[in-house]
Amino acid sequence: MCYNVLIMGIVSPNLSGGFDVSNIVPAEEFFCNRDTSCCFTGHRDRDLPFGGDVHKQGMKNLLSMLVLMIKEAYSEGCRTFISGMSKGIDLRCAEIVHSLSAQPEYKDMKLVCVLPYAGQRTEMKTPLDSYTYSLILNSCSAVVITSPKYESGCYKKRNSFMVEHSSRLIGVIKEKAKGSGTLQTINMAKRAGLTLNIICLDDNPVFYIDSDSDSRPI
Q1: Of the CATH numbers 3.40.50.450, 3.40.190.170, 3.30.700.20, 3.30.980.10, which one belongs to the domain with range 23-204?
Q2: Cβ-contact 211, 57 below 8 angstroms
Q3: 99 near 111, Cβ under 8 Å?
Q4: pTM for this prediction
């Protein structure tokens, strides 16, 4: 279980990046049981099948697979799930955990959002994504901001923080990922000895099906 250290009083807009959250925990004060924690990594929407369009059958298949993997991690003892909250796999996995935790059988499932910098919300380009981002931050167990503002290396710092506080990693990657933050995080997790559950998009044509009636990858 993660212990939520609340900052008393009003959250500074500069710290929160424009959202009103009372569950921000300073990175140096954050604690969770690493043995029962799982973090996520994966590409942004632009590198996902169909640009991350969740109305396409391929993306529905990918999200269904992630639901199964998160449920499996839970069944094997994980109770805290850590998302970096970038638009794409991070946000989708956070949505899944948020939804599952509302169900009685997963009521002890916790979501921790680790932001690379305070103004990350500006990366959400649509009203729906911005709404989803804010909703999740305001309802999760804890928010950790690893850098006060955007700067070189802030994403690497966030990724390292997530790996250091986890024993398992669920990830989504494709071959073009050389040099990407996703590959960087997977390599960090390998070196740290985490259990790896990785979906390789290139090996799964089922994620590129355009519709239920189309069995051919695009």
Answers
A1: 3.40.50.450
A2: yes
A3: no
A4: 0.87
Token pair recorded at residue 86: 């970038």
Query: What percent helix, strand, coil does the chain show, rounded to 5?
Result: 45, 20, 35
Q: What is the pLDDT of residues 36-84, one digit of tens each?
A: 999 999 999 999 999 999 999 999 999 999 999 999 999 999 999 999 9
Contact 173, 48 (CB under 8 A): no
Domain ranges of the chain: 23-204
Q: How confident is the model at residue 22 (pLDDT cuts 50, 70, 90)?
A: confident
* Residue 138: band (very low, low, confident or very high) from pLDDT cuts 50, 70, 90: very high
Chain centroid, CA 86 distance in Å: 7
Tokens 């929407």 correspond to 45
